Amino acid sequence: MGSIKVGLIGFGTVGTGVVKIFQKNAEIIRERLGGDVVLAKIADLDITTDRGVDVAPGILTTDVEEVISNPEIDIVVELIGGYEPAKTFMLKAIANGKHIVTANKALLAVHGSEIFEAANRQGVAVMFEAAVGGGIPIISAIKENLCPNRFSTVLGILNGTCNYILTKMTTEGSDFAPVLKEAQDLGYAEADPTFDIEGVDTAHKIALLSAICFGTQIDFSQVYSEGITKISALDIKFAEQLGYQIKLLAIGKNHGDQIEVRVHPTMIPLSYQLAEVDGVFNAVRMNGDFVGPVLLYGQGAGMEATAAAVMGDVMAIARDQQAGSGLRTPVMGYVADSIKQLPIKAMGEIACHYYLRFTAVDQPGVLAAIAGCLGEHNISIQSMIQPERHESDSVPIVLMTHAAKEADINAALEKIEALDVITQPTRLIRVENDPA
User: What is the reported pLDDT for 106?
Assistant: First the structure.
């Protein structure tokens, strides 16, 4: 084949990793493709900072038009992130007939439908393996090797920052704030970690995974997300006593006529494979009707792992071009007229088990009052931990419920927290017991 030319927008951490792959692995790329993939242009506002890689004169530019409007460039790699100007650049590149490779999960989660529709009209590819799970080949697995299956669930630990924090809290018995500070000092957490610790980054990823697993458009505004900032060492201790570990879990479930798409701290059994995913690693567990459960595990972020996923997409497009096959795989893994509009189940309607930690005055009748409120709302108690009395006037009371509707739990908690004997806000953590 003739050489395929690539233009890169964004010369940050991942962009630098992409350049390193072009330079270090040019031979293996050629051996796998039977031709050359050439990095023709790199556009960035800063082209003077030393990134530790040598770039040939004439490749660097501050003018993005030299990438998105260059008739010689076949593939545009977008790595600037965010909504704008990334969206404008991407749509213009598509209009100019360029194939797109991106790691921009936020943009695709919120504006993916518009971008994918534009690509379908123009007959170009949009590939985004690096947007979910870094170096884990989850998107291509769903769209290609696992595509004969109907997926009932997709569960994921999809944010290395949160997983690192929760792992350290579990192993060291520390509370959230000091572990976050340590993660920032080590470079595992951003100076402003809001998107990570509040669950927004994970919500972007599960929105994309659910869309391609279930063949539906996702309205991101309907995706429930809750972060880890309220998790305490005490909750982690009680979880272990009950046989669970706490993870920030992304959950997608297909009920046929509606789906669940949500992110929140979740207690999962210690025997569950996802409970063993520690540190900055990510994992995704899917269940297909024929293949059964599949777990993919690996580095979910970082320069090298993410750059490798980007280059995998570049090479996949190059293979299609080499074979003259056009768009071999639809953007979302489903042909456009097969994409459904499945509603997302409201959080009040979901049903699961719950961990509830009450802080109450240490006096007779408190447990009976709490149990009475739960019973009035059709919530039954599965197990309980009530530590021995100590010097404090308030004591924790920990309950695990049987499966209950979220709306019923919230109604019961509103009544319980109005009791005079409750001294602090109740802590609620959802429990995922079903490995399917």
Answer: 95
**Residues 205 and 72 both lie in one domain:** no
**Residue 343 placed within a domain:** no
Tokens of 172: 């060291």
Q: Is residue 436 domain-resident?
A: no
Q: How far is the C-alpha of 152 from the C-alpha of 159, rounded, in Å?
A: 22
Give the span between the Cα atoms of 142 and 241, in whole angstroms.
36
Neighbour tally for 323: CB within 10 Å: 10
- Listed in sequence order, the residues at least 6 apart from 318 whose beta carbon sits closer than 8 Å to its beta carbon are 1, 4, 33, 35, 37, 75
Are 218 and 125 in a shared domain? no
- Let me know if 105 is a catalytic residue: no
Q: Tell me, what amino acid is at 422?
A: I
Residue type, 342: L
**Following CA atoms 361, 363, 364, 365 in sequence, which dihedral angle do they give, to the nearest 10 degrees?**
-20
One of 205, 247, 253, 345 is an active-site residue; which one? 205
Residues 266 and 145 in one domain: yes
Report d(CA 209, CA 206) in Å as an integer.
5
Last residue of a domain, one of 299, 327, 358: 299
Q: Which of 337, 258, 294, 340 is nearest to 149 (CA)?
A: 294
pLDDT tens-place string over residues 160-178: 999 999 999 999 999 999 9
Predicted TM-score of the model (pTM): 0.93
Amino acid identity, residue 158? L
Say if residue 79 is exposed, middle or buried (CB neighbours under 10 Å; 0-12, 13-18, 19+): buried
Domain count, the chain: 3
